[in-house]
């Protein structure tokens, strides 16, 4: 997969894309990340890419022409049409695991990082296919959100994760929160590992973990417990839990 990122601050991307799993994916040739500096397409000798808003008001607005020229440059470099052009902005749809899976199916992605108080609306009208937000907070720009999207998308590309950590094991992949994990030492600060995990009963351990996932999801994210994510076994376990609650209330 090739991801082109259009930004005013390409230097911000150095750390996250040169470490850990993203670095390995790039070295394996599974992922190519290209940074394009929008300022290089300003078209003026002062390299300005923003201006005051029509109608007045505080702040500056990113101008359309430099962004469209940068996009045209990327389109030529890729030798054809651009399929998905994603704009990171606070007014976008909320990015989630379904979005990550969807975008991971593309051969090529363009991500535009907005800055200043906003971006000329004509960029959206002329070039953007998807507008995404990573949550309800305002940041100084779309760079960190773009890194979040690249990270979540990259790990969904087949071959990017090793077999010790597959995307199919992810909690959000199955729609429930993750069960608690333990590793050595067996006892730490008076806290020991649940006995069942040392029992060697693989079937009992699997069911215990599923129960823990259901309990944690029930407690912290009941909004995730939708009928379509529940298996027959989940409904059985939830009935057991409901029976325990009923018993405690009589
Ligand atoms: C973008 C915030 C995506 C959240 C872009 C200021 C942003 C953002 N998700 N905030 N520029």
Characterise the protein shown here.
By secondary structure, this protein is α/β, with parallel strands linked by helices. The protein has 2 domains: 2-154, Alpha/beta knot, CATH 3.40.1280.10; 187-249, tRNA(m1g37)methyltransferase, domain 2 (Trp Operon Repressor, Chain A). Helix content is 38%, strand content 16%. The chain has 9 helices and 9 strands. It has helices at residues 14-17, 20-27, 64-77, 97-104, 121-127, 143-154, 171-174, 202-220, 232-249, and strands at residues 2-7, 32-37, 50-51, 61-62, 84-94, 108-113, 130-133, 187-188, 191-192. The strands form 3 sheets. Strands 2-1-6-5-7 form a 5-stranded parallel sheet. It has a two-stranded antiparallel ribbon with strand order 3-4. Strands 8-9 form a two-stranded antiparallel sheet. Helix 3 (64-77) packs parallel to helix 5 and helix 8 packs across helix 9. The structure holds 4-(1H-imidazol-5-yl)pyridine (4F9). 4-(1H-imidazol-5-yl)pyridine is lined by residues 88-90, 114, 133-135, 138-139, 141-142, 145.
